[in-house]
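stage 2 :: seqdesign
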């Protein structure tokens, strides 16, 4: 995630950059990681990173019921049902449970809604909205 902001009444703008696997594995010294087995794994691993040539996408929800940003290290915990991989549409989730229990939003008011999720490098973004977002490629 590059940016997230509320742009005007009930509008949410998210900018996400496409990340890729680096061509170069880091060189971890024994001082940085004393465990030899772990150091070997780290030295063979290539980081995932955003570069200047990464595609950036602007995702705009013209209105939303709720959204949350969670550190990806703490996400998950219940059985969820969704379609998609990094951009998801959920039919069962803890966030939908929250909407049901923590708000007065229902299928009757404001009307049918959907839980959208975006799995980023360091964050999980959850948005519940009546309408799907507009997605624009803003650079490639």
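stage 2 :: out
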């Amino acid at each position: 995630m590059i940016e997230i902001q509320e742009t005007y009444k009930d509008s949410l703008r998210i900018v996400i950059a496409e990340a890729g696997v680096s061509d170069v594995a880091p060189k971890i010294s024994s001082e940085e990681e004393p465990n030899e087995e772990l150091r070997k794994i780290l030295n063979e691993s290539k980081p995932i990173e955003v570069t200047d040539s990464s595609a950036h996408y602007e995702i705009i929800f013209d209105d939303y019921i709720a959204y949350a940003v969670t550190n990806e290290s703490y996400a998950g915990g219940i059985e969820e049902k969704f379609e998609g991989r990094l951009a998801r549409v959920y039919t069962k989730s803890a966030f939908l449970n929250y909407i049901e229990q923590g708000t007065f939003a229902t299928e009757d008011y404001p009307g049918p809604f959907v839980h959208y999720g975006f799995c980023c490098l360091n964050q999980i973004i959850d948005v519940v909205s009546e309408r799907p977002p507009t997605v624009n490629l803003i650079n490639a």
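stage 3 :: structure notes
- The CA atoms of residues 37 and 71 lie 28 Å apart.
- The chain is about 15% helix and 40% strand.
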